[in-house]
Amino acid sequence: ELPKCTAGKFVLQTAIISLSALLLTLPVSIFVFGYISTVGVVTNLLISLPVTFCMSIASVAVVLNLFCPVAAKPLFYILEIAVKYVNSVINYFGSRNYFVLRLSDGFGFVAILLIAILFWIMLSCKRKADMLKLKEMNNKVVSERGSMRQWRLFLKRR
User: Fold this and answer.
1) CA-closest candidate to residue 100, choices 36, 32, 22, 44
2) Averaged pLDDT of the chain
3) Residue 145: phi, psi to the nearest 5?
4) Residue-wise pLDDT tens digits, 37-65
5) By 3-state DSSP, what share of the chain in percent is helix, strand and coil, each rounded to 5?
6) β-strand pairing of 100-102 with 35-37
């Protein structure tokens, strides 16, 4: 269950999306680059909101610049500050050797196996949840003593 506060929900959703993207692209990252980032989730948490902000402000600033360049100038200044922040976070985390985990190509096959196991577990949990819902529905029908069935029989007779 996600937290009720919007800040907690945002952080949790961003972390889940980042972790999912990291896990599902793991084999390709290993084969192509030979390493994975150990701080990708943290970096995404730090820049997700500012990047969204930058995209929104840039859209407004470009349209406003067409009609009134003087009014768009402060927006471009704000955008410049936000972009500098995003670039500094990316440069800081991207320039540190200890923030990456170098792996051999053989680990790519292990990553594919781990992803397959993860999908199998997810499908198993989904099937279990569906079976529990089905059992709950059957219990409800039994507790109602087949009243729906009696109603259908009544309608067929007419």
Assistant:
1) 36
2) 81
3) 60, 40
4) 888 888 888 888 889 889 999 999 999 99
5) 85, 5, 10
6) antiparallel
pTM across the whole model: 0.59
Distance of CA 62 to the CA centre of its chain: 29
| Other residues' Cβ atoms within 10 Å of the Cβ of residue 8 | 11
Neighbouring-strand partners of residue 101: 36
Distance in angstroms (rounded) separating the CA atoms of residues 144 and 40: 53
Q: Can you give the pLDDT at residue 150?
A: 62
Residues 6+ apart with CB under 8 A from 37: 22, 43, 93, 99, 100, 101
Q: What is the mean pLDDT of residues 95-120?
A: 78
Token pair recorded at residue 90? 């990316």
